[in-house]
Amino acid sequence: MSKPAVAQQQADPAEKARDDYGENLQFASVLIIDDEPGMRNFLTKILEPRVKRVEQARSAEQAAEILDLAHFDLVILDNVMPGKTGLDWLTEQRRVGLFADTIMITAYADLDTAIRALRTGVADFVLKPFRANQILNAVARALDRKYLRRENFLLKHELSEGGQAARGRLLGNSPAIQRVRDVLAKLAPTPASVLFTGASGTGKEIAARTLHAMSDRAGEPFVAVNCAAVSPDHIAEELFGVVEGRDRTRDGLFLHADGGTLFLDEVAQLPEQVQAGLLRVLEDRKIRPLGAEREIPLNLRFFFATNADLQAEVDAGRFRADLYHRINVVNVDMPSLADRSEDIVELAALFMSEFSRALALPALDLNEEILLKLSRYDWPGNVRELRNLVERSVILGQFPEEFAGHGTVTGQEAIETLALVEQRHIMSVLDACDGNRAEAARRLGVSRKTVDRKCASWGI
Fold first, then answer.
1. How many Å separate Cα 341 from the centre of its chain?
2. How far is CA 208 from CA 183, 204, 205, 226, 334, in A?
3. DSSP state of 131
4. Beta partners for 248?
């Protein structure tokens, strides 16, 4: 029987225990360090039914050996032990790379010890003797603060990306976008790394977020990193974390994303040294923060994206061949908007509704003339260009002259009327054929006379 199942059986009042101390306990791994067997066993008995994993260490030396092999979310540390104090041990461990939060327990407390504990980064200070609920409350508080810091960090990270984090769903019913959906559905239940390729603005990040939402990691973080937007001098510490100064550590994005999905956009822009570090992470599923002496195991799924030709980058010596083969497990190539022109009208209508609500401005009419012009444009900037055009038009209160129109059919009628849908489709195919009606007829599966007759009815 799994530990969560055991926990549920033992605690019935297990649900009550979880209500009292929060849900974060059940996902936590805890290391107890105390030279007294009775205290170790008491803490283990209290915590084991409620957390994911508990381990014991009878000395500072044994604790260091355990930390060399495994990562813990929380350490419960006795301050007075043979050989060295808990605070001395903690200071040493911070220097070599201890990234766990710490609760200090002691029977001998004074102001100097409390001040030093805070400076060393101790999350809480519990005086012996204590009751079970006191230590459980301390553990719950420490974990709540840990996850709150993580949420705040990830929110600030998204904001630092310029507020441009891709949102929404993969929209459209074109064959090209449906093929993407079918591939994502096959990938969702697997742990495989995925490389998203395609021109800028085709929706690579939206596809990655969609795949994350379909996977069993949907409730965990999705962390997107634009490798081209981070300074080459700082990207290693941003990703891997760093041991700062004497006894401080700073988590990187790998650790903040642990349990979820890390999306590295513009992966071709990674500096060579970081490429080597990423390769080791992919192979070993461990990271070594900058300045640390020990590695930390990771539970991460990796998505990558680029609009560059990675094989050409490998041939030019700018991207490691071994890393390219490691990340190119499954390739999802995002179609350009020109290759899914059937979706342009649906996307334009959605963006119009979104921006009208978000900006509290009137929506512009999408009449048949405007929709025809939108569907005939080749959109070199893809979906991003269409989105920006609609946003700019809502702000200015009108479409630019090249997209303006004075049609009389608007709303759903303009979008769904079969004759108008047919006109937009035939004209977009004609444009793709450079006006060659015979070739357009062949692609449409109709006779040349049918195309000529339709064009004549439209005055073309």
1. 29
2. 12, 6, 5, 13, 11
3. -
4. 244
349: helix, strand or coil = helix
pLDDT digits (tens, 9 = 90+) for 188-209: 999 999 999 999 999 999 999 9
What is the per-residue pLDDT across 387-413, written as a single tens digit (0 to 9) for each? 999 999 999 999 999 998 887 777 777
Q: Give residue for tokens 């969609």.
A: 210
Axis-axis angle for helices 437-444, 418-432 (nearest 10)? 120
What is the number of other CB atoms lying within 10 angstroms of the CB of residue 424? 22
Question: What distance in Å separates the CA atoms of residue 315 and residue 321, rounded to the nearest whole number?
Answer: 8
Higher-confidence residue: 444 or 331? 331
Q: Which residue has the tokens 């060399």?
A: 68
d(CA 253, CA 237): 9
pTM value is 0.76
Chain centroid offset of residue 288 CA: 21
- Output the CA torsion 204→210→212→215 (10° steps): -140
- Burial string for 54-70 (b: 16+ CB within 10 Å, else e) reads bbbbbbbeebbeebeee
Strand order in the sheet with 74-78: 53-57, 29-33, 74-78, 101-106, 124-127
Which helix (H) or strand (E) segment holds residue 290: the answer is none
CA 75 to chain centre: 27
**Terminal C-alpha separation, the chain:** 73
Sign (positive or negative) of CA dihedral 311, 314, 319, 320: positive
Q: How many residues does the chain have?
A: 460
Triad 83, 84, 88: Cα angle to 5°: 160
